Amino acid sequence: MNTSVGNTGRLLWAGLRALIVLTVICGVIYPLAVTGVAQALFNNKANGSEIKSEGKVAGSELIGQRYDLPLKKGQETAAPDLKWFQPRPSNGLGSNQDAGVNTQYDLILSGATNLAGDNKDLIANVRAAKAAVVKDNSTAGFKVRPSDVPAEAVTSSGSGLDPHISPEYADLQVHRIADKNHLGVAQVQKLVEAHTDGRILGFVGEPRVNVLQLNIALKELVADKG
Questions:
Q1: In the chain, which residue ranges form alpha helices assigned H by DSSP?
Q2: What is the pLDDT of residues 181-216, one digit of tens each?
Q3: What is the pTM of this model?
């Protein structure tokens, strides 16, 4: 009987020691080591790929932002602020408050609508978005044709939060941006070209423009002009 109790005690003590050692290694040492290596070698990525403007974090280069005017009384959707380059539709699955999820904060839920290509709502949304792009980006000296509007200007990405647009969509907005900010078209075009990233390794993906980085550069250009 005493031998059995002694063996059980030793087993329990061995198990407790293993628990303590593994907790320290896996729950303290390993996370600290990984965090330390990440901060030392990949500081920007480890912190969420932050983009800073005027010394403050303006957002992440991985998550799209909208540039809208303040919501007016009676409006359900804010109108775009046309002084800024506009991203592709980035509404995700709507607000978490609308969905009744974690209503303490108003967040955008990431995800695709999964609407089929022949869905009537999708077709109506795309047509309305295309008409808005044509109207918003046409100026006195530059007219946008419906055939000029790229696909990503009227459709959201799989996440609904794509931070990039194509160089073609950025080029489409150049005349409007120049007109609204009293800049030269050549100045704004040069800005777009400077913020166009090519294919990864020269063949992976498509050329793209990060809208947040482009708008920060635009803000600095307007400030310098003023």
A1: 2-24, 30-41, 43-46, 96-99, 120-137, 167-181, 185-194, 211-225
A2: 999 999 999 999 999 999 988 888 899 999 999 999
A3: 0.79
